[in-house]
Amino acid sequence: MKDYEVPQEDSVIFKGQKKALYATDAEGNYKIVPSTGWKVEETATLQAVNAIEKQAFQSLERYKAGLTSPLEFYMHKARMDLPTLAQCTGIFQWRIRRHFQPRIFKKLPPKLLKKYADALNTTSEQLLSLPTDD
Amino acid sequence: MTEPKTFTHYYSAHCESGVISSLLRNQGCDLSEPMVFGLSGALSFAYLPCIKVAGMPLIAYRSLPKSIIKNIEKRLHIPIKKEQFKSPLEAQQKLDELLQQGKTVGLQTSVFYLPYFPDEMRFHFNAHNLIAYGKKAEDYLISDPVFENPVAITPHALLKARFAKGPFAPKGFCYYIDAIPKNLNLPEAIQKSIKKTAHMMLKTPVPIAGIRSMGLLAKRLETLSRNPAQQEYTRLFLGHIIRMQEEIGTGGGGFRFIYAAFLKESSTIHPAKDLLEEAASLMTDAGDAWRDFALAAAKASQAEAFNLLTKPPIQLRVAQEKEKRVYTLLQQLTLKPDR
To answer: Is-contact B2 B102, C-beta < 8 A?
Structure first.
């Protein structure tokens, strides 16, 4: 990549930050060229973020229908999936899946709830309720 | 206040090689990021369909996290002090102690808990490296090599990031360099590391790593491109590959440009000047081919048209072919002058 080929496409995800890319100057020597973003990368990241947000939205809908516990929503909100949450808490996946049942989640002992809250970077009280809209 | 007077922030493309290079440079050993990256043999390619990362097969353009630290130690015989902790309190005390002594300390952290990262880029990636170089009141002064300027962060946020759980959990991992040996035998280190990288890329017996695994990935993309039922997944998969190649601080083209910079710089140190210069320019071509692949993949993952999905695997094979040429050439590298 030549230095003048380094994309400067103001990626929305960089929030004004610049990312260092290596490119060659006229003599063919490499140097760091800060880039404000590349559309290709931006769309890929947004695609990934959207996919997670879609999952969060779907679990919110399921919660409203009484089909799942808030835990599933907060898991997606924290950009985690089941294996990641299992690794972060040390709780087996099947057990977490069980805690997705509203009836069981409601009766969760405070200690377990705290474990989830720590992993998801939130509080136990927050975990028990959901933001009504948004 | 324990801010050392002399700390210089170095802006880099990749976190781990950037941190090591910055630690060395701040100790008066002028080794650039590409040199650190190349010498530690960090360039790689791996496609492991059976290991899933966030529901997607593992694709890596570099070696495992921490391998740069380990290999630079081995290759250049620079001792690096490393420590892990069970308790966050202990980890913080040790860090404070080291900073008090005026040391600069490399830390492993999770991107997700670093407040200065843009929101969209905060994923659960546990192997992000940064440097703590001092304290201002309570806050830590952080030199994160992938950011243009140093930042300050609260003790709470830093501890959270250092004790994130999950894959590659940092467990408070910290490292620092006490002293640098007087004579670094760079030509020999270059020779050994290049030979090792070329061998690994060409001769890995099973197609999980190296040139052959690029073929395996191309084949997988071809199969997917023939299956309309898998369209949605294929698009996400292509996006995932792009992110591994471009988003994760690779300096562009999945680290290929950093490696080209390493080859170019090596040509001024190693006796085989011509061969290395040629290899650098071939590697630049390979990096450009990877960029083309990303472009084709982005187009295919965006468009409605199903037939565009056949393009990325073709581009991927072009990149594979170009890279193969580099390693074949590099295999002939010897410590004799070539002119």
So the answer is: yes
Domain boundaries, chain A: 3-37, 42-128
**Contacts from B263-267 at CB under 8 Å and sequence distance 24+?**
B263/B38, B263/B194, B264/A28, B264/A29, B264/A30, B265/A30, B265/B32, B265/B34, B265/B35, B266/B35, B266/B38, B266/B190, B266/B194
Tell me, letter by letter, the H, E, C secondary structure of A38-94. CHHHHHHHHHHHHHHHHHHHHHHHHHHCCCCCHHHHHHHHCCCCHHHHHHHHCCCHH
In the prediction, which pLDDT does B108 show? 97
Cα torsion through B44, B49, B50, B53, rounded to 10: 70
Distance from CA of A102 to the nearest CA of B (A): 25
Cβ–Cβ below 8 Å for B251 and A20 = yes
Using a pLDDT cut of 70, give the percent of chain B over it. Answer: 98
- C-alpha–C-alpha distance, residues A69 and A113, integer Å: 12
pLDDT value at B1 more than 50: no
Q: At what angle do helices A70-77 and A39-64 cross, to 10 degrees?
A: 170
CATH class of A42-128: mainly alpha
Residue B217: C-alpha distances to residues B64, B222, B267, B301, B303 (Å): 19, 9, 32, 16, 21
> Could you tell me whether strands B80-83 and B139-143 are parallel, antiparallel, or unpaired per DSSP bridges?
unpaired
**Regarding the domain delimited by B15-30+80-177, which CATH topology (the fold level of the hierarchy) does it fall under?**
Cathepsin B; Chain A (3.90.70)
* Short-list B290, B204, B180, B212, CA closest to B245: B290
Domain boundaries, chain B: 15-30+80-177, 186-330
B-interface mutation test, from A30, A35, A42, A49, most B Cβ less than 10 A away: A30
| CA nearest to B278 within chain A | A28
List the single residue in B with minimal CA-CA distance to A119: B165
Q: Do B118 and A14 touch (CB under 8 A)?
A: yes
Which of B116-125, B180-189, B293-302, B311-320 is least confident? Answer: B116-125
pLDDT in tens, B142-164: 999 999 999 999 999 999 999 99
